[in-house]
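Journal club side-thread
Mid-discussion, someone asked how the predicted structure for our own chain would compare to the paper's figures. Pasting it here so we can look after the session.
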Amino acid sequence: MRVQESLTFAEYWNDPRFTRKKPNMFGSYRMACGDNIYCPTDGGGWHQLNSYHSRADGTAYPKHINRDTSVDRVLVSEDFVYFGAEGPSIPDELKAARIVLAGRGRLKVTDTDAIAAFEAWLVELGVQGYQGRPFDMVEAARKRGAQ
């Protein structure tokens, strides 16, 4: 993702461009996956909408709120690629450059040569935007016997 804009959580919440990013747990799977889940409260905290970041009963997960809102910034871009569970294999030389993190977590990459190589590889793929389904959606389809 190439960051094009930086907003506070309150700006993100109130901006009409991102209303569709508020999860609708009664809509399609994709509608339920919205990430605009933190509504600012009058007391200065956050109300977390029922979402895939919530507990199974819909109540908030304080650990997620604390982690997600520890920096009051939402990064916005239309210049991104999301592969989900169905992405291409990462070339071994990029894996060796320690630019890939397997699983969830964070990885700060400071090697500018590795970053340039990764960007060049992405450009060569010739794709942008949403390319594949999230892991849990792919798993659910496999369990139903569908592909």
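Post-session note: The CA atoms of residues 102 and 131 lie 19 Å apart.
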